[in-house]
């Protein structure tokens, strides 16, 4: 399923105008939404709101801010495209709200599961993930600060379903074979296709992911092939020969 090429970017002001009109939060969260809508968000202005409501630290209202971000992310995903501007806006808000890696996964697991399940239903409808869809999946992973294993956990059911329908694991943009399917699809072939190599080379900028060297580069399985790792874009990285030897057969 190919992603749409035309896209009207949802700017921050418009998005939070919509949020103000359709959502009702606590008074202090509504005040923060108003700040964003009026383009007045700053550490100083956030501190004024926190002080007014007797909140010592913004991390004390982290879960409510995660809910706010989820509302915004749902608006962004409505057209099934994530623009650079939208990604930057989400990163900007996560920075101001002190949202850390693991927060979405630990505090809003069910909400993230619902969002990603909806996205994966669409992406895996034809049991084939093309280049643009693979890049879109990376953006989805980044939105919620998920590790490879966490992201694959959310899409495991869709990948298994596609494999059971006869799909090729190389076309499903997964870092690892689903546990219940590996024995059926592991044919012992470590070969990485040229298409995957080209995608990895461009993503990694022709440099070792560990040290930045551009000498004696090798294509490495992030999750080792012997441990169920797939020959896919998501599970392959560039390492120089020295860094690859250090890694040996451990997961990078």
Polypeptide structure, described:
- With 252 residues, the protein is mostly helical.
- Among the domains are: 12-99, no CATH class; 190-252, DNA Binding (I), subunit A.
- 52% of the residues lie in helices and 4% in strands.
- The chain has twelve helices and two strands; from the N terminus they run αααααααααααββα.
- It has helices spanning 12-22, 27-37, 43-52, 62-76, 84-96, 103-107, 109-123, 131-143, 148-164, 182-185, 194-204, 241-247; strands at residues 217-221, 236-240.
- Mean pLDDT is 87; it is low at 1-7 and 181-188.
Strand order of the largest sheet: 1-2
* Strand percent estimate: under 5%
Which runs of at least 5 residues are low in confidence (pLDDT < 50)?
Answer: 1-7, 181-188
Biggest β-sheet, characterized?
2 strands, antiparallel
Average pLDDT number = 87
Number of helices: 12
Helix content: 40-55%
The global form is globular
Task: Provide a compact summary of the structure.
The chain is mainly alpha-helical and 252 residues long.
Describe how the helices and strands are arranged.
Blueprint (H helix, E strand, L loop, with lengths): L11 H11 L4 H11 L5 H10 L9 H15 L7 H13 L6 H5 L1 H15 L7 H13 L4 H17 L17 H4 L8 H11 L12 E5 L14 E5 H7 L5
Antiparallel strand pairs: 1-2
